[in-house]
Amino acid sequence: MHPILEGIELVAFDLDGTLIDSVPDMAIAVDAALTELGLPAVGRARVRDWVGNGSLVLMERALRFTAQVNEGDPGAPPAGPLPDGLLERAHAAFLAHYARAPGAHTRLYPGVRECLDGLRDRDLPLALVTNKPEAFISPLLDDLGLADYFSLCLGGDSLAEKKPHPAPLLHVAAHFAVSPSACLMVGDSRHDIAAGKAAGFRTLAVPYGYNHGEPVRDSDPDSVVESLAELV
Ligand SMILES: O=C(O)COP(=O)(O)O
Ligand SMILES: [Mg+2]
């Protein structure tokens, strides 16, 4: 057992970039939404750096990027409001495209199932706290065979606040009546580590996911593992 689990009574996992490599399907949906609006596609590598604050912010980043491309000045700061209604239309288009097949090209990272099995064998309650819209959680967990592991799942729109706000993590701790100091947050991005610290959780990072192109170690998690299998 990894030393970070000492005294831990509840583990909360991030989803995108931690348990599942979901950017291939998100990028397909982003590009389909942009194309529908007559805008240029952006591709998987860029989408990878924009994931982390939920689908609305993802589409806002994509729109601001394409606006810069259209103006022919990729170095220009993303200034000013977007045209009226554009973000709402782009977001609705993204949700519709993503809903068609959110798990088609999405895969579990190595070590995830061993980790979840090992924690379940120890009778640790497991929760999922993602910034992804809640509607996509069940279809993805079903597709990937993860549906039975989590006693509570929260999406980015489940509560009034999302990560890096501590509210979703505090909600999970309260739901299971576990003190935050006996909870562990596992994630791939600075938003997970910031939320975990603000909630008083212990924090564990994985370095292989999405963190806006920055090393997640910069957020000073309590520990880092290359594979979640190391936890158990
Ligand atoms: O969808 C996102 O923006 C991020 O999702 P995550 O919180 O599961 O990493
Ligand atoms: Mg993540």
UniProtKB/TrEMBL annotation:
Q: Which UniProt keywords apply?
A: Carbohydrate metabolism, Hydrolase, Magnesium, Metal-binding
Q: Which CDD domains match?
A: HAD_PGPase (cd16417)
Q: Which residues form the active site?
A: 14 (nucleophile)
Report the cofactors.
Mg(2+)
Q: What is its EC number?
A: 3.1.3.18
One Gene Ontology molecular-function label? phosphoglycolate phosphatase activity
What pathway, per the record? Organic acid metabolism; glycolate biosynthesis; glycolate from 2-phosphoglycolate: step 1/1
Stored SUPFAM superfamilies = HAD-like
**Pfam families, per this entry?**
Hydrolase
Which positions bind Mg(2+)? Answer: 14, 16, 188
Give the catalysed reaction(s), semicolon-separated. 2-phosphoglycolate + H2O = glycolate + phosphate
Give the domain of life.
Answer: Bacteria
Q: Which NCBIfam families match?
A: HAD-SF-IA-v1, HAD-SF-IA-v3, PGP_bact, PRK13222.1-2
Q: What does this protein do?
A: Specifically catalyzes the dephosphorylation of 2-phosphoglycolate. Is involved in the dissimilation of the intracellular 2-phosphoglycolate formed during the DNA repair of 3'-phosphoglycolate ends, a major class of DNA lesions induced by oxidative stress.
Family assignment from sequence similarity: Belongs to the HAD-like hydrolase superfamily. CbbY/CbbZ/Gph/YieH family.
The molecule here is called Phosphoglycolate phosphatase
The scientific name of the source species is Halomonas marinisediminis
